[in-house]
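Budget justification note: compute hours in this period were largely spent on complex prediction jobs such as the one shown. Inputs:
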Amino acid sequence: GDSVTQMEGPVTLSEEAFLTINCTYTATGYPSLFWYVQYPGEGLQLLLKATKADDKGSNKGFEATYRKETTSFHLEKGSVQVSDSAVYFCALSKNFGNEKLTFGTGTRLTIIP
Amino acid sequence: DGGITQSPKYLFRKEGQNVTLSCEQNLNHDAMYWYRQDPGQGLRLIYYSQIVNDFQKGDIAEGYSVSREKKESFPLTVTSAQKNPTAFYLCASSIGGDEQFFGPGTRLTVL
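Corresponding output:
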């Protein structure tokens, strides 16, 4: 079946450091890929997405590129802030139109001043 | 403002009791979902509904039940058959695209 494997946490970085959170997937066909973020005590928010190979999703300084050859969708940010502290989830969807998401286990990120 | 509401935010249940979690959306979305979140396990799909009066089991449906009598409402009942119900429950909805919108969650604790 479909699956998503992401970098285990927790990850702790200093403010202004470079961030990479690895995500790889296993799926047949051409899934859409997502990064969601969860702040403490809240639900999930979509951070960015990519729907086909070589697409780059970006939002709030975060970026991720859909790499079909390596089945990866790594999340990056050039300079993190304390406010980026949260849990980040990589996910995939097989089809448009009300299809369920398959999530990774999440990576907890803490940024220290 | 449009969005998804879940209530209550915290819920305590005694062993052997059924309990119902509320999920309401005013986004006019057709599809709704229930996920369970446990530490270190990410989110797992319990049930989903693509249209009113229809729903499908997800990956971990045992011990749970749902109904979808109205487009805006998708309540989840955690029954006494669920062996380990303590978890954070998240409801989501989507309109036929790929993005799902999540509610703030309900934390259920079995005493």
